[in-house]
Design a protein that fits this description.
heterodimer, A: mainly alpha, 0% strand, B: alpha+beta, 18% strand, flat
Chain lengths: 131, 240
């Protein structure tokens, strides 16, 4: 076989490895970051019954900012349908703050955590996913 | 819709690249594992093309993985006869001097019609003309005729024949092929002169030429777009 074929082969293998590593870094880090921020919001939520405070609004704004930054990179790697739900739930959080609907806010927060957790599980290379 | 068009172009280029990396084999020349890969590639390519929510990378990664797999399988089958037999199978004699090998026919799941079709395709219409017919691993049938049905060669007739030379296409569809005239060692002016000297029509410029070929001995063939083809001996000898 020609040297050219070997070079192609090596380039493709390296490219595939690079894609796998990038996916692991970008998607995993982004989703874990979102999960962590959700836990922080939950902590803040535990100490109050009122959503209409500056701290909560700022936390949700930060969450939305982080998500929008990561979403662009994640679109290259993840099925868009799987991540658009997280974006929708974050948008809902802002609405629930405006209407001070704490129960709906909690549900949305749980859903974001659930989506992050399920996708993190879904992208791992384990026997469940392979089969 | 523009997204789908752009995605289609990207996927098309990638699939083209994948097939170029896999080699130039035609569908009928493929080994079984190559055919399987081709079918999977065709299916994989359509998913990110039509489904906008699927990232293009989800189509590209499996395609590239298959290229790697193909490379590895080819490498293994070349280095090991045993693995090659498992992956590609081995040629099977389906017709021998005693006739059709019924066991081989059943093993390959062939009917007598299939065998006759393959023999006719190879230019033999009677099974009595066939000494051996072999089903190759790519599904093609190679036929060795009986001596009585084999084409007569110069060696059989004990005659001397000159070797033929590969004709070089100098002009095709009104365009001079610069690469080939350099290969033949003639100039564009010489090509124009050959056309003018030998054209049998009024319009005898290069753009009126359908085909002009010439070989090492100066044997040329010229066909104008409007006119009949003409074979002649050119004074201008070309180097091959």
């Amino acid at each position: 076989m020609k040297l050219f074929h070997y070079i192609n082969f090596i380039i493709i293998v390296l490219l595939l490895i690079a894609i796998c590593i990038t996916e692991e870094l970008v998607v995993s880090n982004s989703l874990k970051e979102i999960q962590t921020r959700c836990y922080e919001i939950e902590m803040t939520l535990a100490g109050t019954d009122d959503l209409l405070n500056m701290d909560m609004t700022m936390q949700i704004d930060n969450l939305e900012y982080v998500w929008k930054e990561d979403e662009a990179a994640m679109c290259f790697l993840v099925n868009h349908k799987n991540i658009q739900e997280i974006g929708q739930e974050i948008a809902k959080l802002k609405l629930y703050i405006a209407s001070n609907d704490i129960d709906a806010f909690r549900v949305s927060l749980e859903e974001i955590k659930f989506y992050c957790h399920s996708y993190l599980h879904f992208m791992g290379a384990n026997l469940h996913n392979v089969l | 819709m523009l997204t789908i068009i752009i995605r289609s172009i990207i996927i098309y280029l990638i699939v083209l690249l994948v097939f170029r990396l896999m080699g130039k084999r035609q569908l009928g020349q493929m080994q079984p594992f190559e055919l399987v890969l081709t079918l999977i590639i065709a299916d994989l390519a359509t998913i990110p093309m039509a489904e906008v929510s699927v990232p293009v990378l989800h189509g590209v990664v499996p395609l590239l993985t298959l290229v790697v797999l193909h490379f590895v399988l080819t490498l293994i089958s070349r280095s090991s006869q045993f693995v090659s037999k498992i992956i590609s199978g081995k040629p099977v004699i389906i017709v021998n001097p005693k006739g059709i090998d019924y066991q081989a026919m059943k093993k390959l799941n062939l009917s007598t019609d299939d065998i006759f079709e393959a023999l006719r395709g190879a230019g033999y219409f009677s099974i009595s003309d066939v000494q051996y017919a072999i089903m190759e691993t790519n599904g093609k049938v190679s036929v060795m005729p009986k001596a009585s049905a084999a084409p007569v060669t110069n060696e059989d007739l004990k005659t001397q024949a000159e070797d033929s030379f590969l004709p070089i296409v100098l002009v095709s569809d009104g365009k001079i092929i610069k690469e080939n005239i350099a290969l033949a060692g003639v100039s564009q002016e010489e090509v124009t002169a050959i056309v003018k000297e030998n054209s049998n029509t009024k319009n005898n410029s290069i753009k009126d030429v359908l085909l002009l070929t010439i070989n090492k001995t100066g044997q040329a063939y010229l066909q104008m777009k409007k006119g009949e083809g003409l074979s002649f001996q050119s004074k201008r000898l070309v180097s091959e």
